Amino acid sequence: MSARYQVTGTTAVEISASIESGIRAAALPPGAALPPVRALAAELAVSPATVARAYQELRQRGLVVTAGRHGTRVRPRPPVAARRSALRPPPAPGLRDLSTGEPDATLLPPLGPHLATLAAAAGAPVSYSGAGVLPELVEAARARLAADGVPAGELTITGGALDGIERLLGAHLRPGDAVAVEDPGWANLLDLVAALGLRPIGVPVDDDGPLVAGVRSALAAGARALVVTSRAQNPTGAAVSAHRAGELRELLAGRPDLLLIEDDHAAELARVPLHPLAGATPTWAFLRSVSKPFGPDLRLAVLVGDETTVARVAGRARVGAGWVSTVLQRLVLALWRDPAVTELVDRAAGSYERRRGALLAALARRGLAAHGRSGINVWLPVPDETSALTTLRDAGWTVAPGALYRIAGPPGLRITVSRLADGDVEPLADALADAVRPAPGVGFTA
């Protein structure tokens, strides 16, 4: 913990409020360690039970995480507004940054022409009573989903994939319920689960998606929801294969107590077939975001599912945010209808596939088994993340530490290929090989 910040308070409420204040002010940045319970209790002249209750309250709200001998630390993305600079430290000057997980901005479709067309065709302002999901967007979305074998269901729109997942979990689960999530898995989802007061159960992943044995164990442990990434899994690039989908469907059949959520966030950028699980359980939802193919600022996702599930999500939105902007809906519809945009997105998908394949092949030539069946990321298992990151930094590279994405899985690194130039593949592979197998130090001699 930063020596400049002093936790105060004599009750659990006061202590937790003091720590939260430190997080908001960025005096306790993401990853900062809190004092051991007994040490802080002695410092504040309170009982260890009081500090333990404060830490428990912070954990339940998703602000901190406790990891055994590593102690209690501020979560990487605590659900409280803080100085934005503290959320993600910038890489050191001069380093090549492959840690972002973002698409290549040069391969995103330009929005200006379509916005200009929308502005020219704008009619009367939309009223509160007349707003909602546009019928023409629903029709286009159904056609796109049907082409990928997603079964017909009720349909609504959410403000992105994570917004849809949050609404789904909030509509079906209560604090303390268990959620089966991929391990390693999407860091934002892990933080969301913590912020909702839910209990994550990690499910191991291989190149073909969640392991059946892991899902079975999670169900036996009481999981009330299962979140699966269909393709371009973050961080491993896994994609659910036809065989794995069949196994999972058989396992999940007849589970009326389980909410099945599928996230197809990469959509058109994933050049592998979609094998949906949608409909395997009576309660299900399938989400497809437009952010990765068309631009991160387009906060829109299509959500299709069973009637009750979609009705709960749409109904809750109606008494809260109300609707996703119809201007945004019309913009997305225009992008979907433009053959030039379709061609550009396909070109981006090919570019990511080529870059990812080149890095995987270069690592294989060096005896390193990495993962990246689809998407924009490559996952490289390493013996020790800290030493690997240090070696890479010294060689001029920044990648994402696997600890951000893991619950109980082994260590690794996530490398985003969207900014990787052709000429950088071999030097990066050399640096990664050195990071995984650092040269032995020179010993003392007589």
Quick structural overview:
The protein has 446 residues and is of the alpha/beta class. Helices cover 40% and strands 15% of the residues. 42% of the residues are buried.
Which word captures the global form?
Answer: globular
Rg over CA atoms: 23 Å
The number of helical segments is 16
Structural class per helix/strand content? alpha/beta
Number of strands: 15
Strand content: 15-25%
Ends apart, CA distance between termini: 41 Å
Largest sheet: 8 strands, mixed
Q: What average pLDDT do the residues reach?
A: 91
- Placed side by side, the strands forming the largest sheet appear as 4-11-10-9-8-5-6-7
Helix proportion: 40-55%
Low-confidence stretches: 442-446
Structure description:
- 40% of the residues lie in helices and 15% in strands.
- It has helices at 12-24, 37-44, 48-60, 84-87, 112-121, 135-147, 161-172, 187-195, 212-220, 242-252, 291-294, 307-318, 326-337, 339-365, 385-394, 425-436, and strands spanning 64-66, 72-74, 96-97, 154-158, 178-183, 199-206, 209-210, 223-229, 259-263, 283-289, 301-305, 377-381, 397-398, 400-401, 412-416.
- α8 links the parallel β5 (178-183) and β6.
- α1 (12-24) packs across α3, α2 (37-44) packs across α3 and α15 (385-394) packs across α16.
- The protein is globular and about 65 Å long.
- It starts with 11 loop residues before the first helix and ends in a 10-residue tail after the last helix.
